[in-house]
Amino acid sequence: MDWTKETNARLLATAYVVGFVAWLIGVVWILYNQFTAGSVPQLTVGIVFFAIGQVLIMIAALAVRDQFQTSRTASSFSQAWQRLSLGLELPTAVRLLLNR
User: Helices (H) and strands (E) in the chain — how many of each?
Assistant: First the structure.
């Protein structure tokens, strides 16, 4: 995927990277609290991080869905969301952010 084809490429890549990191923190936080019998407020913090991360990833997927072909098995949004959620586009997004 080419991030530079998007109108606000750096902003979109930033949202994606922040969303992915928030999603990952949320997953780790939730799993840690389940294994250590954490309290409900601690679990809620993990859920909030997870939700914020997913919202940002979904926004990025909506913005870049035009770069993916719709097929019989998956829509362009679904393909974009899957690639972004799996972190497959993370290296290119970070590379875009590090280049000035």
Answer: 4, 0
Residue 93 near residue 60, CB atoms below 8 Å: no
Measure the CA–CA gap between 21 and 26, rounded to whole angstroms.
8
- What pLDDT, in 10s, does the model give residues 27-76? 999 888 888 887 888 888 899 999 999 999 999 988 888 777 777 777 88
Beta-carbon contacts of 5 under 8 Å, excluding residues fewer than 6 positions away, are 67
Q: Please work out, in degrees rounded to the nearest 5, the angle formed at the alpha carbon of residue 71 by the alpha carbons of 65 and 76.
A: 10
Give the span between the Cα atoms of 31 and 26, in whole angstroms: 9
Consecutive H or E run containing 85: helix 76-85
> How far is 60 from 81, CA to CA, in rounded Å?
8
pTM above 0.70, yes or no: yes
> Tokens representing 16?
């994606």
Amino acid residing at 89: E
